[in-house]
Amino acid sequence: MNFSLAAHRFVAPTLALSLVFVVYGLITVFWQRPTLDFAAVLMSIYFLCMGGASFLNSRAASTVAYEGDSRRADASLQDAPVGVNIGSVGQLWRSLAMIQLAGGVLLLVVPHTELWMTLIGSIILGLTGVALLLMGLRVKNVLPTDKDWRIAGFVTVMSALGLTVLSDLGAKAMLGVTAGGALIAGIFMVIGAISLRGQSKNHR
After folding, report:
1. What is the DSSP letter of 82?
2. Closest CA to 189 of 98, 56, 88
3. What is the C-alpha to C-alpha distance for residues 10 and 59, in angstroms, rounded to an integer?
4. pTM of the model
5. pLDDT in tens for each of the 204 residues of the chain?
6. Cα angle for residues 137, 19, 84 (degrees, 5° grid)
7. What is the DSSP letter of 33?
């Protein structure tokens, strides 16, 4: 598996995740008077969509790892280690997808209160941010999106912390802090997708 083909596999999944971030951010920015019920449902959909995008990334990583395993049978290939790095990243993406989907479902079934929204939201966003940071480190020198994943991860962790601090101010503040982080993370994920697209052109 060469680097350009690995990048090619991640273009669409990375773009999908960036769209989830940006769309959520834009919706919350333009909704001026959200209720707790609306905020809980919107955040639930946000987590469910993130879970879907994370699953797409895990599939891409699994494909790259499988193709890398096949290539390692040929000792003449010098880029075989790509499959090893991406394989571990695929496991992280899969675990993250399950966590995000679980968080989205929980937000729908628990009482729509500031306490539950803060607890679930901060945990899911915090774990998402940490996972993105770790995956960015693992794909360093393998995918051009490594820095973008790390920046998006840091911003998402800050959003989780901000949510715990501002939750007492109501639904508008809760959505505002998560939306701000989502927009920033989304922008860097778009940049990452563009970088992946540029590197993947070498595959054609």
Report:
1. H
2. 56
3. 9
4. 0.86
5. 455 666 677 888 889 999 999 999 998 888 778 888 999 999 999 999 999 999 998 888 877 765 554 444 444 334 444 545 676 788 899 999 999 999 999 999 998 888 899 999 999 999 999 999 998 888 887 778 888 999 999 999 999 999 998 878 888 888 889 999 999 999 999 998 888 887 666 544
6. 30
7. S
